[in-house]
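User: My instructor asked us to take a sequence, write out its structure as tokens, and then describe one feature of it. I'm not sure where to start. Here is the sequence I was given:
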Amino acid sequence: MINIVIVSHSKHLAEGVAELANQMLNPTHCRLAVAAGINDEEHVIGTDAVKIMTAIESLADAQSIVVMMDLGSAILSTETALELLDPELAKKVTLCSAPLVEGTLAAVVAASSGASLQKVLEEASQSLYPKRIQLGENFSPPQSNLTLPAKIHGKEARWVIRNPHGLHVRPAATLVELLSTFQADYQLIKGDRRINPLSLNQLSLIQIRKGDEIILIASGEQEDEAIAAFLKLAENGFGEDLASSLEKVTLHGVLVPPTSIKAPAFIWHETQLLPSEEVTEALSIEEQTEQLIQAIKKTIKNLKSYAKKANNEIGEHIGAIFNGHIMMLDDDELITSVIERIKSGKLSTQQAWFNEMQIRAQTYRDLHDPYIRARELDLRDLCNQVLYHLQHKVKPSFKSSQPVILIAEELFPSTVITLERDSILGIALAKGEHRSHSAIIASEAQLFMLVKLGEDLLKIKHNQIVILEPSQSSLSLPASAN
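Assistant: Let's start with the prediction itself. The structure tokens for your sequence are:
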């Protein structure tokens, strides 16, 4: 038995990963434990070495224990937990560097099939390859994930996939678990690719979709039983209920476009603070560190209120955005990097914080994936919020006595969540990005938003009447105003 401990700064995140993993878990071969968050009502985000130690001890009956972790400081807490453990138990523990969600799911599937520790770690470490291939990233995955050198000989079965979303994680995991119960070797063929179907990663890499034909070859003592079980599982949708999708009726009609929105413009200036020129030479490194920590704590308190507002008014999936921001700030490695900048460059707390966050934001902007690249706005937002506290300033809030169309260069996520939605008929941004969290929050809050309208948008005057055309994705001035 190989058991798995999930370590995360967020209790909700860890429990969500565990909930997903439990759908693929075979308790005969694998059990899970969660060690997440800290027992502090004011600051629940973090990791606790004692919690991790207790979770490992609860799984002590295993041959091996694999620990999956989210962020850098989780590793430090886990390493501390290992020092607290009985040495014999600590020898059973392996820390895995794989991504928390994908890695945990891959590890659970492998462990549930009775795989070795080496195979479990291999599956976890390669768990991002399917996603990277699907997104078209330019990299070379291990060749063993794509092809096997020669076709094996044995019993064969062909099947055309009927599952609406193909063999995604859950049905693929069901197939892996089934095949692992028989004494047989396998190959699965799709087109010109042949893989080992006992690997969830390899099944994901060949992207088996609805309508694809696959061939399963089983060779060994129980090859007949394995093929019969495979065909029965396939007939039953690989564990998915196909009846509802087969009975689905699609109706087509004529779209009636939303009407145009005419209202006064409300000009919003999203203030982006710069480090002040205050002299901090009189402060010691310890005092500057405390100054930074207190500003971050106040920002985290604000983020918790944003998360609560989002949970109550929009949904937990939007609250999760701000919980993620909390995790980004509550990071020992981040604070250490800022302190190092203060020491090496003799910088003020504000300048060191600003420099560090600007570099991290640029790292996001340089990424290939457009969805991840759009998160650079979150980094700038967090930088700005902490600067407000370091400079003892209050962030301005939106207030309007009438319904308006909000005009701005761009909006931070922390601004969008605080907008009075009853007073806003639409949002128009000169810059912005439709994949940003600001746009996602606006969309989920039923706020119509246009982005990338260009610098001419900023020539509009406050209270000037403007017209948003949702059907044309455009903004214009009434003819009389031209």
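For the description part of your assignment, you could build on this observation: The mean pLDDT is 86. Try explaining in your own words what that tells you about the chain.
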